[in-house]
């Protein structure tokens, strides 16, 4: 299309009509020009967009004569280089294998990547293989079988034959790219639990190993720490047990004497479910013994011992010995005997290490001053005999238990009053210290009377005792009072109790039986020559206590324990017997006294009131 510029004539310029026509032609010209320019711009943009992709690659229809054939080859090579991205197809894994087996650790990569970069196998911090070349002298470490040709991959597998527990750890496959690409496998070799060592810290030496020393010695109050070092996979379960050196009776008795809380633990107990036992302050009775560490896991092998028992645990232990000062107990603080009779004095001693025990006797001078003389086993006169014997368990004079230990006995073969009666003591000593026993009195006076019974005879209470005496009894003293009264309220009973002495030599000639009945008929109990006294009258429903002592030509015995009994009873009522121990009143040991008709009436009234109250409450609840 050809556009010509408009020609403006003079006629046109001159007239108004011509001027208007010229303006219109000019406007049309510029409108057409704008459309043409817009089309040209659009064509140019389309050309650019169409040719832009071909700037990065050659045209596919270029012929062999084309100048751009070389550009095609170089472009393909550049594309291949850009697609070689470092990558490892395999991911890190965890392998649990048994000892003696073979493990294959994979590290698969694309073949074109393997052609560009080297692959390293690293165990911990040590390189053990580069590509397929081993870097270690261990013949068990090898390269795995290569992948089939044409697969497009390289396996690069690390093979470890006959694995052991020492092969456990991390294995890293690392590519020599920048930055490096790597994966890490974890190898865990299962093997039975094994105890490497048992160590003890504290005591005589700062550290002792049970593989060399099977025993550690401490002093009472020392701290100690036992550690069991173990190996194995899966992680072993570790436990400590203790086989006590002292039996439970000893432990209980020792704890009672020391004020500690008594326990009921068996002889062998579990003391820890970890690999450690820590004791801040050791106690001989509680802590001494054999401590054994056991370790086991799923790989442990079951073994059968000679006695037929099976076990799947590794075991090792250590003996814990605790030195402590001798503990001395006296079963009988008072020993009653008579002239020409033998006498036995006993000290029970617990100690570690074993003590040396000696005996002493108190000597009284003319001015009443005292000193202690050590007794010697003089074979020339044979006056004393020293005996040592193991003690299973005995009862002390107060009824408490004496721990099993060793009895050290002083036997006086033939007692002579002028030389032998008096006070004795034993002394036990070891490397920790020495301990004196409480005093033991050897006397010819009667033994402490023992309560034998409390019963109702007719309608009045009757009390009975037994007294041992090597010499004839010469006198008795019986006292009673109301239970709630003070010690100053004791009242002597006259006449004396009835005494039954040994009737024949076949019986026990040292044992006397005596009894006393409160109430009527007491004139029959009065000793000859004694003035007639009004017998004591007991009040019904009142609780009383009584005590007795006896005397022979060597002196008075100790008072008996207090006997609890009740006042007289009505004839129509029954009586209940009581038992008395150590002067302590117990609900089922008190002899019930008569409450009389008034007491029964009060009881019935109270019972009726309670019944009516309960009935009213139930009725209110229902309503």
TrEMBL record:
GO biological process: homophilic cell adhesion via plasma membrane adhesion molecules; synapse organization
Ig-like domain sequence ranges: 86-184, 192-305, 326-443
Protein name (database record): Hemicentin-2-like
Species per Swiss-Prot/TrEMBL record: Sipha flava
Encoding gene, per UniProt annotation: LOC112682625
A Pfam cross-reference name: Ig_3
Biased composition (Acidic residues): 65-81
InterPro entries assigned to the protein according to its UniProt record, in alphabetical order: Cell_Adh-Cytoskel_Orgn, FN3_sf, Ig-like_dom, Ig-like_dom_sf, Ig-like_fold, Ig_sub, Ig_sub2, Ig_V-set
GO molecular function: axon guidance receptor activity
SUPFAM superfamilies attached to this UniProt entry: Fibronectin type III (SSF49265), Immunoglobulin (SSF48726)
Gene3D superfamilies attached to this UniProt entry: Immunoglobulins
Composition bias, Polar residues: 7-20
Alphabetical UniProt keywords: Immunoglobulin domain
């Amino acid at each position: 299309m050809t556009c010509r510029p408009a020609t403006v004539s003079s006629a046109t310029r001159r007239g108004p009509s011509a001027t208007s026509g010229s303006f219109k032609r000019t406007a049309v010209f510029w409108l057409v020009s704008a459309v043409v320019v817009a089309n040209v711009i659009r064509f140019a943009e389309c050309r650019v967009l169409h040719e832009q992709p071909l700037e990065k690659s050659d045209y596919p229809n270029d012929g062999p004569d084309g100048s751009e054939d070389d550009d095609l080859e170089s472009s393909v090579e550049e594309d291949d280089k850009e697609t070689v991205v470092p990558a490892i197809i395999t991911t890190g894994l965890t392998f649990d294998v048994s000892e003696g087996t073979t493990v294959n650790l994979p590290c698969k990569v694309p073949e074109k990547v393997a052609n560009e970069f080297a692959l390293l196998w690293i165990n911990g911090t040590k390189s053990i293989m580069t590509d397929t070349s081993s870097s270690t002298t261990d013949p068990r470490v090898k390269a795995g079988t290569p992948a089939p040709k044409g697969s497009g991959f390289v396996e690069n597998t690390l093979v470890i034959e006959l694995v052991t527990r020492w092969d456990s750890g991390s294995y890293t496959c690392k590519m020599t790219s920048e930055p490096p690409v790597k994966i890490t496998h974890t190898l865990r070799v299962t093997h039975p639990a094994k105890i490497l060592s048992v160590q003890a810290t504290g005591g005589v030496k700062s550290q002792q190993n049970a593989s060399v020393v099977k025993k550690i010695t401490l002093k009472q109050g020392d701290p100690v720490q036992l550690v069991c070092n173990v190996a194995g996979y899966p992680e072993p379960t570790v436990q400590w047990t203790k086989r006590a050196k002292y039996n439970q009776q000893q432990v209980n008795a020792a704890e009672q004497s020391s004020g500690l809380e008594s326990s009921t633990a068996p002889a062998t107990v579990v003391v820890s479910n970890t690999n450690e036992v820590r004791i801040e302050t050791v106690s001989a009775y509680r802590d001494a013994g054999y401590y054994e560490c056991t370790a086991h896991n799923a790989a442990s092998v079951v073994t059968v011992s000679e006695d037929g028992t099976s076990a799947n645990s590794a075991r090792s232990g250590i003996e814990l010995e605790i030195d402590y000062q001798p503990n001395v107990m006296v079963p009988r603080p008072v020993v009653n005997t008579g002239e020409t009779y033998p006498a036995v004095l006993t000290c029970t001693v617990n100690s570690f290490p074993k003590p040396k025990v000696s005996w002493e006797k108190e000597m009284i001078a003319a001015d009443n001053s005292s000193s202690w003389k050590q007794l010697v086993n003089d074979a020339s006169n044979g006056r004393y005999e020293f005996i040592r014997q193991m003690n299973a368990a005995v009862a002390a004079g107060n009824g408490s238990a004496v721990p099993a230990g060793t009895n050290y006995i002083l036997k006086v073969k033939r007692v002579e009053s002028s030389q032998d009666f008096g006070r004795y003591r034993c002394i036990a000593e070891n490397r920790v210290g020495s301990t004196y026993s409480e005093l033991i009195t050897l006397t010819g006076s009667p033994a402490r009377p023992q309560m034998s019974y409390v019963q109702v005879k007719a309608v009045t209470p009757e009390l009975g005792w037994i007294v041992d005496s090597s010499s004839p009894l010469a006198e008795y003293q019986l006292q009673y009072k109301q239970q709630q009264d003070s010690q100053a309220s004791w009242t002597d009973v006259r006449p004396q109790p009835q005494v039954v002495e040994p009737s024949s030599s076949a019986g026990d000639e040292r044992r006397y039986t005596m009894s006393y009945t409160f109430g009527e008929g007491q004139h029959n109990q009065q000793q000859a020559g004694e003035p007639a006294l009004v017998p004591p009258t007991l009040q019904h429903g009142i609780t009383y206590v009584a005590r007795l002592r006896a005397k022979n030509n060597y002196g008075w015995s100790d008072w008996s324990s207090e006997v609890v009994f009740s006042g007289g009873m009505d004839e129509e009522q029954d009586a209940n017997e009581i038992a008395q121990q150590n002067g302590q009143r117990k609900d089922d040991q008190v002899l019930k006294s008569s409450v009389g008709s008034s007491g029964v009436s009060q009881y019935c009234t109270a019972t009726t009131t309670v019944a009516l109250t309960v009935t009213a409450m139930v009725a209110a609840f229902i309503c």
